[in-house]
Amino acid sequence: MDIDGEVCRYDDMLFVAVMNEPYEGGGFKICPQASPYDGQLDSCIAQGVKKTELVHLIPRAMKGHHTSSRGVHMARGRVYRITTNVPVWVQTDGEVAYKSNDISISLLPQAVQFLGL
């Protein structure tokens, strides 16, 4: 993984979530510090987490209390590039879109503008 040009190596990743909002998946506060207003993307990386540990980790993630758990790493940056040895499923805004082993994520400042009534 590369965050803003800095290489970060993670082995045995269970998942990576890169977000600009705190919540995902119907109320999981995966990236509690994420904000759509700061120009940054927040990420939560679960590495080396055993499936048996998920029983304790998932309820903590509902409220955003998982960030200091063993195997959970939080990061922040503007540009992400995630590469894997084999293609993995990529989910975008709740939809499973495709498989890839090279994923780039970045923000487009002011790409969406909302008009008030």
Automatic annotation (TrEMBL):
InterPro entries: NAD/diacylglycerol_kinase_sf, YegS/DAGK_C. It comes from the Bacteria. Coiled coil: none annotated. Residues 2-115 form the YegS/DAGK C-terminal domain. This is YegS/DAGK C-terminal domain-containing protein. It comes from Alloscardovia omnicolens F0580.
